[in-house]
Design brief:
The chain has 92 residues and is mainly beta. The protein contains 2 helices and 6 strands. The chain has one domain. It has a 6-stranded mixed β-sheet with strand order 3-2-1-6-5-4, covered by helices on one side.
Amino acid sequence: MDGLTRRGFSDILRVVDGRLRAVGRGEVLRTEDLTICEFHRFEGISDPDDMEIVYAIASTKGVRGTLADAFGVYSDPATSAALEGVPIRKRW
């Protein structure tokens, strides 16, 4: 997370009412304006069910932030729905 913040992904993103929101700005982001620039999966050392995925997301409006979610069976369906249709940049 610190590395992503240093590279400009400093906004915290959350899913609110089915859409992504930049928390500090209060700005609601449109799916068609977003790109997943990169993502990282993490697994707990002692528990393989303790997994998380962190997305680095950029908008055409200049918002660059991170969105975290559980990975696997504990993932939030609202997060998956909010990211549906958001393209993933092939190379970063």
